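seq as requested:
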Amino acid sequence: MGKAFNIDDFYTNMKETFKVFGRLILEHNYQRNNLTISWPNYQSGITKDIYYVKEYEELIKIRQFSFLLIDRSIVQIYYEFNNDELTKYKLAFYPYPVLTVEDLS
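struct tokens:
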């Protein structure tokens, strides 16, 4: 059986990710708060009945991301632990919105 990872391991990996890929990351916005790793003022869920561009803009505006990449895409990383057990997680990627011909008409 392999080694179980705890919250310290995950947080160390987040910091290492920024060190290794720092040239691709405009900004990092993650924190550890007791048994959770996320971004400040974490809000769960996806907005319903809204265009992707608006959702993306809102996520940037209220800083709901772990990493903002140089192409303006965002990465959300959320981990919640109960002692040394990972109980919840969210890994999401939001590419920078690109308007299509259909969007313009």
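Residues 41 and 64 are 8 Å apart (CA to CA).
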